[in-house]
Amino acid sequence: MEKAVTFDPSGLGLPVEIGLIDKELGKLWESSDDTKTRASLINFVIHTGDPGSLKADTEIISTIAAKHACRAILIFSNPSAPAPAAQAWINAHCHQTGKGERQLCSEQITFRLDGESANALPNIVFSHLDTDLPLCLWWQGDLPEPLDETLWSWVDRLIYDSAKWSRPVHQLHLVRHLTVGSGKGTVLCDLNWTRLQPWRYALASLFDHSAAFPKLNQIDSINVELGNGSRISAMLLLGWFASQLNWTAANSGESQSLFRGRQGEGRPLDEFLSPDNRKISFAITESQNQERNAVLIRCGDSEFELSHAANAEFFEARIHIPETIDSRQILPFPRRNTTDTLLAELSRAGRHPLYTKSLEKILPLLRR
Amino acid sequence: MPTEPFQSNPLRDGLNLRSIPDPCSLIIFGASGDLTHRKLVPALYNLAADGALPQAISVVGFARRDKTSEVFRKELGEAVRKFSRQAVNDELWENFSNSITYHRSEFDNPEGYVSLARHLEELDAARGTRGNRLFYLAVAPDQFEVILENLRKSGLNTAAPGSWARVIVEKPFGTDLPSARRLNDLVESAFDESQTYRIDHYLGKETAQNIMVMRFANAIFEAMWNSRYIDHVQITASEPLGVEGRAGYYDKSGALRDMVQNHLLQLLCLTAMEPPAGLDADSIRDEKVKVLRSLRPLAGDEVFRHVVRAQYGAGAVNGKRVAAYRDELNVNPESNTETFVALEVNVDNWRWAGVPFFIRVGKRLPKGGTEIAVQFKSVPPVLFRATGETVDDNVLVIRIQPDEGISLRMCAKMPGSSLRIEPVKMDFHYGTSFGKATPEAYERLLLDAMSGDATLFARRDEVEEAWKFIDLIHEAWRTRSNDLAIYSAGSWGPSEADELIKRHEATWRRL
């Protein structure tokens, strides 16, 4: 049955014929006053299957454009529509620069692709990219199958959010395929991983003390307590520990059940093996109320805990090493909404080697 | 198989694009001073707020005034609220300030250093700072000797195996070559060169760091970066301010020592140097030293042909009347100190033969700004001569401050049926191109010193070579005083400076 789609084009700007987009954009600038300058440093493309997100996505583009002048392309793709159709709108986002009256403007082109037209995405859409500028593609929702080789080979930075996937295990394997296939030049940017960045920084800082980092060789267990639906985030954190400490997956297969609908209960779920073959158990608890997220690391009698209460501006860090350290500290917790996370990602040049390594550590535990 | 014990925190590996500094104690001598309050502690707070500092860090203020750690933290808290580049979060400041303590002692009291050593050992145990020490001499150079001698006598200049001890020295690095050598010998008596970090905050600025990237990561520029294509280079540092409470220091120093010997010669080096063998500190500094050694010495009468010195008289800046330099508070009414200097400098090497570098620095100029302008040669006057159109030369401008960025001026045809050529500018602004705030120079430099990266710090031979060049100019100036020109405050300097560059058939850029 055809999915009901509510599409509201208000706020998307001027409707234009696809073949006349460049001409209409030219007219847009001719009619503007001298204080406006068109600027573009990247192509920023958002692909969504949710018509309800177009307004929010346009607002995100406007905020991004203030920091990263871009050619923005917003695509709403509805392949289940019965008739093929393609429509376009153009818009501009202008932001004042400095103290003067000058405004830097970024263009936004929005496409609606219905039915079979959705398959023509590379042809219709990518012919409107700004030449020679990097392409950052934010693919909202699950990645499509089969993967379109042409599409991925053009993408410089592929942005996605593994926390929002409906089938995360399957999708993570697809992502891994990208790193070895035609898209191997593509930088993978998982917003879920970017959101965890403050956690990684803060967890690392727990072990800066000269008495603390030797304990990393003695970890017995890691318990991760995160909000409902954050299992994949917890696994990424564990993958990060495993890659930094050179652990391998013991591969008892228990962790697979995590992604088959069962809620974690905090009991040991699976194990990693340290280089000296010690077993390190890990458990993931999904708290229903999301009042508190925490990571507890036990190394014999020593404990390292990092926690964050909902809406708090800080982490609480607790270190207990018998007869040596018993401390509690607060650490900065940058609160980020989706736009902030995207801005953090776009401001960060280069690849995410730790992400790729972490994926490699957890994928054996997450067989399809 | 038993695992090797970790020598450092492996969770830090790869976490940052740059390395996180080692846990350490930062000991600031001159903790009651302006630099500590306006720059150093705000920079440390910003680094902590950005998560760029390790948790295992301690800051020890060492000064003569009697106060408790609590009072010291309160004073610093007020300063941070005033001078921090980002809004201060009370809880975060509270947390960071727990790492700050105050150690009262006279600089010449050996007991004070013995008790400092004990205090640092306690901090190592309590905060896990691993015996790493970074000493920051935020004091006048006349205090260096006594501090360095006491650091040496107390053994604080040497670190335990596996730890490190470093010293950061603030400018001025001497007032001439002999004093710089004395100062360097003094530092060397306590810390060897690899432990010594001489701060030139200009090198901490993003655009200064970007000069190398722009030159060596872009084939189009490097191919033209020589005497075949470049006509001349202008390096300008102008400011509308006067001496602003620094009269005591400035009247003895003057613009040549205060700005040219360090900041502007460093910018010249980055502009003129050959590609380094690597990105390590010494490879880069080796190349900078070669530039300094290639500077054609200006001595005797040559100084008066190639250097213009001037002092501001009364005038108006930004619509406000301002006094002449000699009428400023604490300035000798008969002072011959230059507040403006313009130089024509030649780099006698293969690449730059025949390309003059014009350096201009001044106070009470109409506008503040620092930039490097690379003026390319004219196209052959053949094609467009018949049309009567003026073809402006290409100029590549690297703006160091404010509004850091790069622009390129080129010619374009104006739309229309006739051939009219107009200059257009391609402009790159750091602020609008990269979606993050540019950190303060001191933040970058403190991080580098804690991480053991000396790239952005001046090496002993750099400092001494620069003084060699500057001293010859001062020697010539000592033989005459009638060459000091006077310019009106709010103007772009004396007409003699315009004449200097006019001999090369060029004009100073309007910032």
Can you tell me about this structure?
The complex is a heterodimer of chains A (368) and B (511). Chain A is built from 10 helices and 17 strands. Chain A is of the alpha/beta class and 368 residues long. In chain A, helix 4 (149-154) links the parallel strand 7 and strand 8. The relative contact order of chain A is 0.12. With 511 residues, chain B is an alpha/beta fold. Chain B folds into 2 domains: 21-170, NAD(P)-binding Rossmann-like Domain (Rossmann fold, 3-Layer(aba) Sandwich), CATH 3.40.50; 203-502, 2-Layer Sandwich (Dihydrodipicolinate Reductase, domain 2), CATH 3.30.360.10. A 9-stranded mixed β-sheet of chain B has the order 16-15-14-13-7-12-11-8-18, with helices on both faces. Chain B has a 7-stranded mixed β-sheet with strand order 3-2-1-4-5-6-17, sandwiched between helices. In chain B, helix 5 (144-153) packs parallel to helix 6 (177-190), helix 6 (177-190) runs antiparallel to helix 14 (460-479) and helix 9 crosses helix 14. The longest helix of chain B is centred in the middle third of the chain and has 26 residues, at 247-272. Chain B is globular. Chain B starts with 23 loop residues before the first strand and ends in a 9-residue tail after the last helix. The chains are: A alpha/beta (368), B alpha/beta (511). Chains A and B meet through helix 7, strand 17 and helix 9 of A and helix 3 and helix 12 of B.
